[in-house]
Amino acid sequence: MSALRVRSCAIHQPNLLPRLSTLAKLYAADIWVVLDDVQFVRRDYQHRARLAVLDNPQQYQWLSVETHLPHGRATLIRDAQLAYPQRAARRLGQLPAQHYRASPYWQLLHTALEPVARTVAGDRRHRGRC
Prior knowledge:
Blueprint: E1 9-12, H1 20-28, E2 31-34, E3 48-53, E4 56-64, E5 67-68, E6 81-82, H2 85-100, H3 106-121
Parallel strand pairs: 1-2
Antiparallel strand pairs: 3-4, 5-6
Helix pairs in contact: 2-3
InterPro entries: WbqC (IPR014985)
Pfam family, one: WbqC
Protein name: WbqC family protein
């Protein structure tokens, strides 16, 4: 009789830019479930991210993308829509650059964010590459 392998499952609501703790949780899990059939919450990380100053993590600025909620407060995460995709793509490119260009890791972050910004902007050639 073979031993059963213990499996772990991570369940998380989508975030605009997941925090490192979220990425670590997803990396460590055998199964990853995207919980997008719950209410969109405006004061959460679903459409915004906190960008900390490199040498002072207590100082930060919000990177937010405007959303349209077709069903008002009852809108599920999966039904939320970007209100202005081109503007959101610009913000995804500009604000992280302003905050982190001086970091030795900027090029890695920029390389990861570039296809995301193109997808958000609606560039169909890059869909599915994020």
